[in-house]
């Protein structure tokens, strides 16, 4: 019997209070940011079965970067308003029709960042997210908790003890 064990993480106290504001956000993360999409994600998106409208949006949603790699195979392009072309009335049409599992990794994770530094697992949330900024303003709590999360780190660092302060800064 294989039992999937949840790992111990360090995370900010406000982490569980985060949920995307979606169409209520004034400064959406879907606007004017270079959003990289991996080769695997790109191929899955352009070949998925979906409505004709979503297919039209997805087919026109990507541009090739100057330097292509498996991790940055395409960027999400912007429409004339500077928004993601898959966005519809402030909501992601892909998320709405197909579910969170179809979103590129960066869209599923943001504003969360999952890091492993040596043997320690850390979660942080970016203050560039409007909702995170509101939570911090309202709670004024920067307590760090330790607990179980069913997650995998996205970034890995191996550092000497004297270098740890540079990564955590």
How would you characterize the overall build of this protein?
The protein is of the alpha+beta class and 169 residues long. 25% of the residues lie in helices and 22% in strands. It contains 6 helices and 10 strands, in the order E-E-H-H-E-E-E-E-H-H-E-E-H-E-E-H. The strands form 4 sheets. A 3-stranded antiparallel beta sheet has the order 2-4-3. The chain has a 3-stranded mixed beta sheet with strand order 8-7-10, with no helix packed on it. A hairpin with a 2-residue loop joins strand 7 and strand 8. The protein starts with 6 loop residues before the first strand and ends with a helix.
Note the topology:
Elements lengths: L6 E6 L23 E2 L1 H9 L4 H8 L2 E2 L10 E3 L10 E2 L2 E2 H6 L6 H5 L2 E6 L2 E6 L4 H10 L4 E6 L5 E3 L6 H5 L1
Parallel strand pairs: 7-10
Antiparallel strand pairs: 1-9, 2-4, 3-4, 5-6, 7-8
Provide key terms for this protein.
3-stranded antiparallel beta sheet; alpha+beta; 169 residues
Structural class category: alpha+beta
Helix amount, in percent? Answer: 25-40%
Q: Main sheet, how many strands, which sense, barrel?
A: 3 strands, antiparallel
Spatial order of strands in the largest sheet? 2-4-3
Distance between the termini: 41 Å
N-to-C order of helices and strands: EEHHEEEEHHEEHEEH
Rg result: 18 Å
Could you report the average pLDDT, rounded to the nearest whole number? 85
Question: What fraction of the residues are assigned to beta strands by DSSP?
Answer: 15-25%
Supply the number of helical segments.
6
Give the number of DSSP strands.
10
Q: Pick out the low-confidence regions.
A: none
Q: What form results from the Cα inertia axes?
A: globular
